[in-house]
Amino acid sequence: MSAVIMDGKALAKKVKEEVRAAAARMERRPGLAVILVGDDPASQVYADGKKRDCAQCGIYSEEYILPAETGQEELMLLIETLNGRSDIDGILIQLPLPAHLNERAVLSVVRPDKDVDCFHPFNVGELMIGEKGFYPCTPASVMRLLAEYGVELSGKSCVIVGRSNIVGKPLAMLMLRENATVTICHTKTEYLKKECSRADILISAAGQAGLITGDMVKEGAVVVDVAVNRRADGPLCGDVVFEEAAGRASYITPVPGGVGPLTRAMLMKNTLYAAVIHGK
Ligand code: NAP
User: Fold this and answer.
1) CATH 3.40.50.10860 region(s) of the chain?
2) Which of 57, 171, 210, 238 could form a disulfide with 255 if both were Cys (CB 3.0 to 4.6 A apart)?
3) Active-site residue numbers?
């Protein structure tokens, strides 16, 4: 079997166009504030990408680059100010934060209706009980890709490798909503190969290049690679050994060009959603 490659880049373009068209119909432009603490070059690259996406989608954006030694109170004060501004619909705090800052406490100060990353405990709870609201961008991106390619989820066996709060756990909730039977694997999972090889839908978000080999993929399975790993010799890759898995899967995402670009587009969608909540 030769798998259909799920093109996240093309779909991201389509989603951004949907956002641009909807934003253009609003009385006031949606607004996003991005806060970056410290000078981590990778975080700066991500923040720059978000700025570009906002410009493409007709979303007003502000970027706050704070020194690495910024204190907890100062950061929280900035978030409180942004919470109170009617031109800012979404607030995104670029993670990771420097070690001296309490990440959980900082994220909990963001007003839930401006929490476009869906990290606030209120929104996490809403997601858990199945309410409509913000969906975290990466899991939302996976769901949108699967929907776009018409992948049937109801009654299917879905195995997710990774149990982080930003990918594995929320993705499991979204999959459950669609009536998939979900298994979450992690480093203590005893028989990873056995678990993976019975998946109709196999999603890997471990951050371990080469973890998912072809023999772990069931014939005809749908394989989604969320991970982004940098190989010693340069290029980005996911967890999945692509050529091997593509020989057995029915659908597969590439890295790069799969989940990643669509995740950024989902942030734009969440900012638009926040603006709708705010009656723009
Ligand atoms: P994380 O917090 O480090 O979590 C990784 C998870 O994978 C953990 O639950 C860990 O298990 C599990 N894991 C690691 N190695 C494993 C192994 N050998 N066998 C089984 N499970 C294993 O990472 P994350 O933030 O969720 O991100 C995961 C990957 O996705 C990274 O490569 C990241 O760069 C990428 N990512 C991509 C996007 C995107 O938009 N494309 C967005 C976010 C993240 P334990 O819990 O037992 O440690």
Assistant:
1) 28-113
2) 238
3) 50, 94, 117
CATH architecture assigned to 28-113: 3-Layer(aba) Sandwich (3.40)
**Does residue 159's CB lie within 6 angstroms of at least one atom of ligand 1?**
no
- Is ligand 1 within 6 A of the CB of residue 185? yes
- Domain span(s) for CATH 3.40.50.720 in the chain: 136-259
Ligand 1 neighbourhood includes 183 CB (under 6 angstroms) = no
Residue nearest to atom 34 of ligand 1 (CA): 228
Closest residue by CA, ligand 1 atom 26: 164
Listed as own residue / partner, the contacts of 238-241 with beta carbons closer than 8 Å and 24 or more positions apart are 238/204, 238/209, 239/161, 239/204, 239/205, 239/206, 239/207, 239/208, 239/209, 239/210, 239/211, 239/212, 240/204, 240/211, 240/212, 241/210, 241/212, 241/213, 241/214
pLDDT digits (tens, 9 = 90+) for 113-146: 999 999 999 999 999 999 888 999 999 999 999 9
State yes or no: pLDDT of 1 exceeds 80: no
Nearest atom (ligand 1) to Cα of 262: 40
Query: What percent of the chain has pLDDT above 70?
Result: 100
The neighbouring-strand residues paired with 230 are: 236
* pLDDT above 90: residue 46: no
pLDDT tens, residue by residue, 147-169: 999 999 999 999 999 999 999 99
Which atom of ligand 1 approaches the CA of 207 most closely? 32
Q: Which fold has domain 136-259?
A: Rossmann fold (3.40.50)
- Residue 157 Cβ < 6 Å to ligand 1: no
